[in-house]
Amino acid sequence: MALLWEYQIDALRRNVTHVDLISIDPDKEIDVDVPLVLVGKAIGTVDGGQIHTERHTLRVRCRPSEIPTKFELDVTPLKIGDAFHVSDVSFPPGVKAALPDSFTLVTCAAPKVEKETTETAAVAVEGAVAVEGAVVAEGDKKAAGAAAGAAAGAAAGGKAAAGKAAGGGKAAGGKAGGDKKK
């Protein structure tokens, strides 16, 4: 008996150009990779989570006549922070996993929170007035300094002063150091 080991496909014509077969004993167990197919929509994705597939195939050990075509995993009950492990897969008779039962196959992770850049924070607080006793977060110190400078400049007399403080020393619409031509 023979089993397909590897094949090659022509990149342009999409024809099979080469096939490697391996001789196997039909009475001995072999290790093969079987595709994992995810079915359903996880509860965690409705809440904003993301499905992460750790493995697209599952290595199993069985006799050649018992090789399954695929494993379907229903991911519907997955909540954010939950995972499917090898132990959660139901195997047909005569088929067992070649990986440990605790091996993770699929997870539902919380989405990564995008950090707000200081530029957008400065734009958001450009017209704001600094409040005494306010606590400034680590990433917002530059934005808070620009807002405080803008507020002080506006109180001192005008938009040009506020524009210089908020723009980091540049006048609104001009270059740093004036409009001198060389």
Can you give a write-up of this model?
- The protein is an alpha+beta fold and 182 residues long.
- It folds into 2 domains: 28-109, Ribosomal protein L25, C-terminal domain (RNA Polymerase Alpha Subunit, Chain A, domain 2, Beta Complex); 118-166, no CATH class.
- It has helices at residues 43-46, 118-124, 141-157, 159-166, and strands at 2-9, 16-23, 30-39, 50-53, 57-62, 71-74, 83-85, 96-97, 104-109.
- The strands form 3 sheets. A 4-stranded mixed sheet has the order 6-3-5-8, with no helix packed on it.
- α2 packs parallel to α3 (141-157) and α3 (141-157) runs antiparallel to α4.
- The longest helix is centred in the C-terminal third of the chain and has 17 residues, at 141-157.
- The radius of gyration is 31 Å and the shape is flat.
- The relative contact order is 0.11.
- The model is unreliable at 146-178 (pLDDT under 50).
Number of self-contained structural domains: 2
Q: Spans with pLDDT under 50 lasting ≥5 residues?
A: 146-178
Question: Looking at this structure, what is the CATH superfamily of the largest domain?
Answer: Ribosomal protein L25, C-terminal domain
Indicate the overall shape.
flat
What is this structure's SSE topology?
Layout: E1 2-9, E2 16-23, E3 30-39, H1 43-46, E4 50-53, E5 57-62, E6 71-74, E7 83-85, E8 96-97, E9 104-109, H2 118-124, H3 141-157, H4 159-166
Parallel strand pairs: 3-6
Antiparallel strand pairs: 1-2, 3-5, 4-9, 5-8, 7-9
Helix pairs in contact: 2-3, 3-4
